[in-house]
Write a structure and sequence with these properties.
Elements: H1 2-15, E1 19-23, H2 32-37, E2 42-44, H3 49-61, E3 65-71, H4 72-76, H5 80-88, E4 94-99, H6 117-122, E5 128-130, H7 135-146, E6 152-155, E7 177-180, E8 185-189, H8 194-207, E9 212-216, E10 219-221, H9 225-235, E11 237-245, H10 250-260, E12 267-273, H11 284-290, H12 295-305, H13 317-320
Parallel strand pairs: 1-2, 1-3, 3-4, 4-6, 5-6, 8-9, 8-11, 11-12
Antiparallel strand pairs: 5-10, 7-9
Helix pairs in contact: 1-7, 3-5, 8-12
Length: about 325
């Protein structure tokens, strides 16, 4: 995802001299080409995120389109007051780019886990929040952010995320994408767990005989209310999937839509990190597993929720060892 971000930003910068990039002491191997080609529009601000956001707001006030890059928890939570006062209240044209969302930087420890950032940013009026699910969605998200007048937060993974979309993508800010249609249940995934959602959908479809509607909800704010309402009416079972606390993120956003537009007999469950701190350090795959976000645990949860028993054959090596698997999560 990070490479897709840099490549897209370079293309934008060549076409638009208003594009600036600020980084918080990160991206030395990523941003060298940008720095060399646009030396007057690249600034390494050091590990001083609050100051970086303030500078970005100042640049935006004189007509620049400013991209601010750092680890997801640092570019949202560490400088929240500056985002609120300097960026959002003035509708500054600042694009916050948070890398390594969820457990993306798991080996670096709990300070680098990003499990509250969506919830924090959703409280701010007028800011758009985009969580692309693969490199193709990243490219579309950066283009959409650049052409949106006002603050945007784009939540990226770390690296190595597989390409999910194989066809040209029709991407509209605030409109989810139906990747697979189905009538038995809807699985609404966002960001780094879109690939996991696709695998879970395939397991349920091929081995449990369930018709699953898989939705990529790349925009959390504004949320695609009509798509959620349609899925609720037509499937009567909705599961949200995110690498984030279940409070404040995608699950909460979908729950708000459902609460205000109730559907009789609807089953709704949020799949994500429960309301707890993860004090364990490890790989992203391991941390997902112990938080119930591995393929096998997600499939079992969904089957139990709809009253179906999970057969052991659902988790054969053949089913769970596809080329794009990030990890089996059978720890």
């Amino acid at each position: 995802m990070r490479n897709a971000f840099v490549t897209t930003l370079m293309k934008l910068a060549r076409r638009d001299k208003r594009i600036f990039l600020l980084t918080g002491d990160l991206g030395f191997m990523m941003f060298e080409n940008f720095r060399d080609e646009f030396p007057d529009r690249f600034f390494n601000m050091g590990a001083a995120e609050a100051n970086m956001v303030g500078v970005a707001s100042g640049l935006a006030s004189v007509g620049k389109i400013v991209f601010v890059y750092s680890h997801a928890p640092f570019v949202t939570e560490r400088c929240f007051e500056q985002i609120k006062v300097d960026v959002v209240e003035s509708n500054a044209n600042v694009k916050l780019i948070g890398a390594g969302s969820g457990f993306g930087y798991g080996p670096l420890g709990t300070t680098h886990y990003s499990l509250e950032d969506i919830g924090v940013m959703r409280t701010l009026p007028g800011i758009a929040i985009i969580c692309p699910g693969d490199p193709i969605e990243v490219e579309c998200a950066i283009l959409a952010a650049a052409h949106t007048n006002g603050p945007v937060y784009v939540r990226l993974g770390k690296s190595g995320e597989p390409r999910i979309h194989q066809k040209p993508l029709k991407f509209t800010l605030g409109k989810g994408i139906v990747l697979e249609d189905g009538k038995d249940l809807a699985l609404i995934a966002t960001g780094t767990l879109l690939e996991t959602g696709k695998t879970v959908s395939q397991i349920l479809r091929k081995n449990a005989g369930l018709s699953v509607r898989l939705i990529s909800m790349h925009t959390i704010k504004p949320i695609d209310q009509k798509l959620i309402e349609k899925a609720a009416r037509e499937t009567k079972r909705i599961f949200t999937l995110e690498e984030h606390n279940i409070i404040g993120g995608l699950g909460s956003a979908v729950a708000e839509v459902i609460a205000e537009n109730p559907v009789n007999g609807l089953l709704f469950r949020r799949l994500g990190v429960r309301d707890t701190y993860t004090s364990i350090v490890g790989s992203q795959t391991y941390l997902r597993s112990i938080n119930g976000l591995s393929y096998d645990k997600l499939v079992k949860f969904i089957l139990n929720a709809i009253g179906r028993k999970a057969a052991s054959t659902l988790f054969s090596k053949k089913v769970l060892s596809k080329k794009n698997d990030i990890g089996l999560g059978l720890i």
